[in-house]
Amino acid sequence: MVAWGIPAVITVLSASIFSRILGPTEYGTYALILSATVVTGAASFQWIRFSALRFVSEKPEDSGVDISTIRVAFIGVTLVLSVVALLFLILTSVQFWLVFLTLIVAVLQASFELGLSMARARERVRTFGVASVARAVLFLGFGYVASVSITSGASLLGALAIAYFIANLFLAAEWKSSDKWATGHLAKYWAFGWPASLGAGLLLAITFTERFLINNISGTISVGLYATSAELTSQMVLAIYIVVGLTSYPTLVAANARGGAVAVRSYWRRLAVLIIAAGSIIGSIIISFGSEIATIIVGPEYRTTFMSLLWLLVMSSTLNGIRAHLLDPLLHLNNGTTTIMGISATILITHVLGIQVLVPRYELLGAATSSVLAFTVGIIITWWFARRTHYIAIDFWPIALFIVAAIISIVVNTQWTHDVLWHYPTLLYRLVVISVAFAGPSFLLFRRSRRPRPSE
Question: In the chain, how many domains are there?
């Protein structure tokens, strides 16, 4: 939990500080460049990361050949990406520093994520946590210096590159292996990973596309306002899903190897309740205490936008978290990476169409609404395909009660309810409402967790 919780808190703090220092225009520039960088890295390297998680998790104690093959694949992709960047510079008029920074950050980020994936697959929690915290702290420090001294979005990207470079040193041991790499392993990785890599690239392209479309329709200032609100909200919401789902995929792989579909269903049933419960509680807290959160983490120029988009951004982040950390692992386990690629493309197309229709009329509210619609479509389609894996088993009542508790606490604590019925509640009142609403479901979950489980 510390391995993801502390970095998530620091990331929220970093976005809050940097957006205040740079302002909407420069922060919007940083968000646009970073989006292009993340998509480049995901499309190029994500197939290796997914393969590392899948195949190293199967044999964590005997993964020397896998690690050597991962190392060779990473070097090969880096060389190809460098050649592509060089050709891009020759054939276009894009500035050298922009292409260079994009390439450097994409490669360093990919190396860092691969190192984390190998540590995660081998359950080296300490290494995972130290590297994650180091990256977040380093970016906060170098980013602050860059923001204050240079005050440009590009300087913040340079600070990110430095943070990734130093953080990679903490993961150097994960890359060590004296075994020879295997062509067969590389072919297996590619066959398994390329659809997942393309799917991940398409999902990350959602952020890239929405920001560039908003930039074209409303300008860079709007990108800064929207990116700040979306990033802070998604970090707060997704942090809880990442913490809960950190070991979900390796555990599912191990359960499948140990007991087959029966063991997977037993573990997934408990995971589903835990993820829905955690998401319901954190979503209710964020929406109920939105005004206080806005005062603390965003500057005055962002607060109106943040508050107007908050509930939509919480919804889209929640739907995305459930899909990514609860349903997608089942498709990966079933080798359904091609299916994930198709779902990702559908989400992207839906979001692009939604932005084109809604943003000209409703501006940033339209962009957030489009995001909710896109991830709703995505989770429905993913659920339909995940059901066909025969790994799903639902514990209905705890999940239903947590969802109802979230709806009740949000409705009772909203500004609209109190404008109609009575004055806006105090902090204590809202906290009591949330506590009472979730007391029953939490007690039920506790009682069920105390029951002895049938042997798998």
Answer: 2
